[in-house]
Design brief:
The structure holds two protein chains of two kinds.
Chain A: H1 17-22, H2 45-49, H3 79-84, E1 88-103, E2 109-123, H4 124-128, E3 133-144, H5 147-152, E4 166-178, E5 184-191, H6 215-220, E6 232-242, E7 245-253, H7 264-267, E8 280-290, E9 296-297, E10 307-326, E11 341-360, E12 368-377, E13 386-397, E14 407-417, H8 419-432, E15 441-454, E16 457-467, E17 486-496
Antiparallel strand pairs in A: 1-2, 1-17, 2-3, 3-4, 4-5, 5-6, 6-7, 7-8, 8-10, 10-11, 11-12, 12-13, 13-14, 14-15, 15-16, 16-17
Chain B: H1 2-24, E1 36-42, E2 50-57, E3 70-76, E4 87-91, E5 98-103, E6 117-123, E7 129-133, E8 148-152, E9 158-162, E10 175-178, E11 182-189, E12 210-221, E13 229-245, E14 249-251, E15 253-258, E16 264-268, E17 273-277, E18 289-290, E19 293-294, E20 296-300, E21 307-313, E22 317-322, E23 327-332, E24 337-343, E25 361-363, E26 370-374, E27 379-384
Antiparallel strand pairs in B: 1-27, 2-3, 3-4, 4-5, 6-7, 7-8, 8-9, 10-11, 11-12, 12-13, 13-14, 15-16, 16-17, 17-20, 18-19, 21-22, 22-23, 23-24, 25-26, 26-27
The chains are: A mainly beta, B mainly beta.
């Protein structure tokens, strides 16, 4: 019943080329030498459990009931029911989209982009009577090309599935629940943090990357952090501390790549290098949830509306490069600089997320209006390129009569370049004389409609407008002026195979 | 910053109000004694059937069943296709595992339209299991069959079926008065001309609401050497609302609970109400719809949100599972009032939380807790003090 959810990806390293255009050699190249990522569209494992049993209906039997089935390929010619005997569920989802910028950017044009996800999960109780265990392995196949990298050159990339073309292992973990009411839940293995932390449930409807894994960790963490299409080894616990309060926390490898200098998507191309030679990342999140399990409700007066509030923080012990000075305390933009940025040990960030239902229709309770907001910052702004980012938006579920599974959304995102990096921009102009305006903030708005065409297919027309791309960087084609604001139209489809 | 402070203060006030309301609720009824909720097991058997609906506790050892085993029907097959589930699974509190009690053939000539097992399930003292089937071919009411009632022995073997003009998509709980060698069982019927879910009323843009659903009483005699025989079948109430639905198959009367004095309480899901049918054990003519209710109106709206299964709880109160959120609602039928509700499913993957998850209910043998299903997760769950 529940339609697949949307999540997002980004690739910030492709923002680097403008720097290369501007400077034959510049220490500024360190600024965005790391990738950033978001959350890909979430696969609905439950739908895959619901595969149609058409195995006796011939090779095209799966088409016999295509309007009602939850997976296009139904029972996959008997494979899914065979797996089901061993408590295993196979889910495969294709996300395909075409996006194009009508105005602004470096070029105008359109691009096709696609992601295939495959997830195999085994419920250990169904498999061999072991209560509370789940084994999970997932893979990604990324195809097409990135509009954001080729045309837009923005921080907050337009689509959450953009990444390098590759076929790679994504997550590989085992999860075990403990105690009487499953109060404790421990997960160990290769994990992608965008699947659990900093999530806004309502924001997942949107297409832009920043409604998934946010801008701050995307830009600031090594390799963009352990988020799609990457992951990292670690262990995390989720503990139900009191009726409305959950605590989620974990310790992970500090970087998704063994390499200190290479692009993690390239140095760990298959997702199987399992780096443990790097620093440590620790993250904790407090979740205040209404309704909590067991919460009582009075028939007198209005019922409170559901919400989740999250407060969290992360710390990564990796070295973080200063955005202005080299290791001799000379400005990186100066010709006297050795080009090696001063390294700081570790960085931390604080964040808050709110999801709140604000209205529920009396005549059709499926129709709900929800707001979401998310804000985060890095106090040690000299060592990160982005020191603040936020999202805000509204979603209306069941927006039209008898469109229970559709969602209309309007949202925005804002990201702010750190003062140190902005100073560096000015210094580049001062020392090198090139046009290098100080970067500031980048803002975008997005309007989208997610239409559930069949149980296995969603259609999603999308509109985005990006103000001041990359906080106001020079256009590499016209180095004496900034990249102009961008109007983007797109169409995405999610297909559960 | 100021708004964030306000939010924090609001949260504190909210927690305090919950505490206060909880304190006021002391001694009102059954739900306030319930504090623990846990998942017991997956209800999906090896053939991949899904969507658990009915829950019944086995009253004594019989056949392959043991006393206190919990039977659960599955309405869907390995697909998300409603009206195609063919299995009844048994949860053993001893082994804490699920096994298949019955796996019926998907097509039976004696059961028009196929097999899709519903919330209509009971285990008679004599060891017979009676279950309703509201079948479909494509998972919607477009290909709905009229269905049947099936009788199984205590080994899960099908022994007979009942069908006829009064049997149309047997849907809701089975309430019964079981005397051993005779029994009266009540089943709600929600079919009766229900069209497919894409046939819309041009005025509302939703499927049309038909007020043809009924509750039927089957008066059974149960010989020592054979399955129950239907001596009489009587429509005791008719005119309940029913409506096809794309996601939920149909809305119709679901919960049935029989009082000691012969009053039958019914949840009318679409109309969000609980009504009472007097003298249900003996009446020979049906109660019909008047003033938007079939029978005496007990309570309507408020906490009720697509009420589904219903059962008796200590204090001679009724407990109702909401379909549109993850709450169970306690009702005092004698006072005609709702007492309170409790969230037993707070899954925010749905909005409102738990929307579309709950269905069947059954008390535990010690009468202190209750079983429920979550049909999004395909699990049997238990709430206890």
């Amino acid at each position: 019943m529940t339609p697949p959810l949307l999540q997002y990806v980004s690739n910030l390293q492709r923002l680097v080329p403008w720097l290369c255009y501007s400077f034959a050699f510049s220490a500024s190249i360190f600024v965005f030498s790391e990738r950033a990522h978001a959350v890909p569209p979430r696969v609905n494992i439950g739908n895959a459990m619901n595969a149609e049993d058409e195995s006796s209906s011939g090779i095209f039997g799966f088409l016999s009931n295509w309007r009602r089935t939850s997976n296009l390929l139904g029972n996959m010619w008997g494979l899914r029911s065979e797996l089901g005997k061993y408590g295993a569920t196979l889910a495969i989802q294709e996300t395909s989209e075409v996006m194009g910028n009508l105005t602004g950017g470096v070029h105008r044009g359109a691009a096709y982009n696609g992601l295939t996800q495959a997830i195999l999960q085994v419920n250990t109780q169904r498999a061999f009577g072991w209560y509370g265990g789940t084994f999970n392995v997932s893979m990604e196949q990324i195809h097409g090309r990135s509009l954001s990298a080729d045309n837009l050159q923005v921080f907050q990339t337009a689509s959450g599935i953009e990444a390098d073309r590759s076929t790679r292992l994504w997550e590989l973990w085992f999860d075990q629940k403990f105690f009487d009411q499953q109060q404790l839940d421990i997960k160990i293995g290769q994990q992608s943090l965008d699947q659990e932390y900093m999530i806004s449930n309502n924001a997942l409807t949107f297409v832009n990357t920043m409604f998934g894994w946010p801008m701050v960790p995307s830009a600031d963490l090594p390799g963009g952090g352990p988020a799609y299409p990457l992951s990292t080894l670690g262990a995390r616990a989720k503990y139900w501390a009191a009726t409305p309060l959950y605590i989620l926390g974990g310790i992970y490898s500090g970087s998704p790549s063994r390499s200190w200098s290479e692009d993690p998507q390239k140095s760990n191309r298959s997702g199987t290098s399992f780096p443990l030679n790097r620093g440590v990342m620790a993250i904790i999140e407090f979740q205040y949830v209404y309704p909590a399990l067991g919460e009582m409700v009075s028939p007198d007066g209005p019922q409170p509306l559901s919400h989740i509030y999250r407060l969290g923080a992360w710390y990564d012990s990796e070295p973080f490069a200063d955005q202005y000075y080299d290791n001799t305390h000379t400005p990186l933009a100066s010709s006297d600089s050795n080009g090696n940025p001063k390294n700081h040990r570790g960085a931390f960030s604080l964040y808050a997320v709110i999801d709140q239902m604000i209205w529920r229709s009396r005549s059709d309770v499926n129709r709900t209006l929800n707001i979401f907001g998310r804000a985060m910052g890095v106090p040690q702004a000299e060592r990160v390129p982005i020191d603040f980012s936020m999202n805000f938006g509204l979603t209306l579920k069941d927006p039209l009569p008898y469109r229970t599974d559709d969602t209309f959304g309007i949202g925005m995102g804002y990201t702010h370049v750190s003062g140190a990096l902005a100073r560096n921009d000015k210094a580049v102009h001062r020392y090198q004389g090139t046009y290098s305006p100080a970067q500031g903030g980048e803002t975008f708005v997005e309007v989208t409609y997610q239409y559930q065409f069949t149980g296995w297919m969603q259609w999603q027309p999308d509109f985005q407008y990006i103000f001041n791309p990359s906080g106001g960087i020079p256009n590499p084609i016209h180095p004496n002026r900034r990249i102009r604001d961008e109007l983007i139209l797109g169409f995405r489809t999610n297909i559960a195979l | 910053m100021f708004s964030r402070s306000l939010t924090s203060l609001g949260s504190l006030a909210f927690v305090f109000s919950l505490f206060v309301s909880g304190a006021h609720a002391e001694g009102k009824g059954f739900l306030e004694t319930i504090h623990r909720h846990r998942t017991l097991a997956s209800t999906s058997p090896g053939n991949g059937d899904l969507n658990p609906y009915a829950i019944v506790v086995v009253p004594r050892d019989m056949g392959i069943l043991h006393k206190n085993d919990v039977l659960v029907t599955n309405f869907n097959n390995i697909n998300n296709l409603q009206g195609t589930g063919t299995t009844i699974v048994a949860y053993s509190p001893q082994t804490k595992n699920i096994s298949v009690f019955a796996n019926l053939p998907p097509n039976l000539s004696a059961c028009p339209g196929g097999i899709g097992l519903t919330t209509a399930l009971t285990v008679l003292k004599s060891g017979w299991v009676v279950v309703g089937s509201a079948p479909s071919k494509d998972g919607s009411t477009r290909t709905r069959g009229e269905g049947c009632m099936l009788v199984l022995d205590a080994t899960g073997k099908l022994v007979t079926t009942w069908k006829g003009p009064d049997i149309s998509s047997p849907w809701g709980d089975i309430a019964s008065r079981d005397n051993g060698d005779t029994a009266s069982i009540f089943v709600s019927m929600s079919g009766f001309d229900l069209p497919g879910p894409n046939v819309l009323d041009p005025k509302t843009h939703y499927p049309p609401i038909l007020q043809k659903a009924t509750v039927v009483r089957f008066d059974l005699s149960i010989p020592h050497d054979g399955p129950p025989v239907v001596d009489h079948q009587t429509v005791v109430a008719k005119g309940f609302s029913a409506r096809a639905d794309r996601d939920n198959y149909l809305f119709g009367p679901t919960g049935l609970a029989l009082d000691d004095d012969g009053t039958l309480y019914v949840t009318d899901g679409y109309d969000n109400e609980v009504t009472a049918v007097d003298d249900a054990l003996h009446r020979t003519t049906p109660v019909t719809r008047q003033n938007d209710a079939v029978g005496r109106l007990i309570t309507k709206g408020k906490l009720l949100n697509w009420p589904l299964a219903m059962m008796w709880v200590p204090g001679h109160h009724l407990l109702v599972a909401n379909g549109r959120n993850g709450q169970v609602v306690e009702i005092d039928p004698s006072q005609k009032k709702q007492i309170y509700a409790q969230w037993v499913d707070n899954d925010q993957a749905q909005q409102p939380p738990g929307n579309g998850d709950l269905f069947g209910l059954a008390m535990t043998p010690d009468n202190k807790g209750f079983y429920y299903v979550e049909d999004d997760m395909n699990t049997l769950n238990l709430s206890t003090p």
